[in-house]
Amino acid sequence: MNKYNLKWLLLVCSIIIAMQACVPKKKMVYLQTNANEKIDSTQVFDYHVEKYKLQVNDILDVQVRSLAKEANEAFGNGSSSSGQAVNATSNSGGDLYYITGYSINDSGYVDLPIIGEVKVLGLTIPEAKDEIEKSVKRYFSKFYLMVKLGGIRYSALGEFNRPGKYVLLQNQATIFEAIANAGDLTTVAQRDQVTLIRQYPDGTRIHKLNLLEQNIIGSPYYFIQPNDVIYVEPMKQKSFGVGVTGAQTITTVISVVSTSLALILAIQSLNK
User: Fold this and answer.
1) Are the C-beta atoms of residues 31 and 213 closer than 8 Å to each other?
2) Is there a common fold for 27-34+152-235 and 59-149?
3) Domain 27-34+152-235 fold
């Protein structure tokens, strides 16, 4: 093979590698519409928010305010030590409600000051509030009761820019908020095959999500729940080890081709 043919062969191989290694734009853009669909900015998406049922190790934020001094002191209302604990936890980036909240034990009960144990396992937040309210009424006649989840805890695994365990101090959060909180997905993340591992009272189930399509908004898994695990696999381009963007790939390929060409020419000159 002469030098001219060799150069063309290496050039063709380089182009093929570059085309295979680059990640196409359509694999990275969230909430796409079909090619034949017109974008309607006034479109309203209906979505179903699944009512979350409390599980073991969930943390509840329970506050009781009353004219009775005992209730206010027991639940840390106006307590300086409680405020200091909250500030210290927030400043250190820790889990706020792990310090100030009440965990559901293995038997499904939450142990509250003065009130004692109340069974809340398998109940929704409104149902849990009703049960706690029944117990509070035995001790106080006039009071204000607040019951909510102590944040949404979830895990982000795989192709995240910042994988790890997170807590969102919100009543509800979408999967996009969870992804944004973990630094978004990497360029080589497989956005059309996202695995959501969700805990249910009767066991664990695995769901597959496609974040590239707009209809994800209408999915029952659009809103994350406590204890969710979001796992995202890499595309095959990552295993190529060439580059993610076209510029990275071309730079790498040119470097490899130049080195290979120099080596081949050197070997040919030695064989003459």
Assistant:
1) yes
2) no
3) Outer membrane lipoprotein wza fold like (3.10.560)
- Cα separation values, 39 from 32, 43, 237, Å: 10, 9, 30
Residue 25 is classified by DSSP as G
Query: Parallel, antiparallel, or unpaired: how do β-strands 228-234 and 152-158 relate?
Result: parallel
Tell me the per-residue pLDDT of 10-67, one tens digit each, with 9 for 90 and over: 555 555 555 555 667 788 889 888 766 665 666 777 767 778 999 999 999 999 988 8
> What CATH number labels 59-149?
3.30.1950.10
Residues 6+ apart with CB under 8 A from 92: none
Go through the chain and tell me how many residues it has: 272
What are the pLDDT digits (tens) for 192-207? Answer: 999 999 998 788 999 9
- Dist. CA 73–CA 51, nearest whole Å: 32
What's the CA gap between 224 and 177, in Å, rounded?
9
pTM over 0.90: no
Domain ranges of the chain: 27-34+152-235, 59-149
Per-residue pLDDT of 127-168, as tens digits, reads 999 999 999 999 888 899 999 998 999 999 999 999 999 999
Give the list of residues 6+ apart from residue 61 with CB closer than 8 angstroms, or none: 97, 100, 101, 102, 146, 147, 148, 149, 150
Which candidate, 113, 114, 89, places its Cα nearest to that of 102?
A: 113
Maximum mean pLDDT: which of 70-79, 138-147, 250-259: 138-147
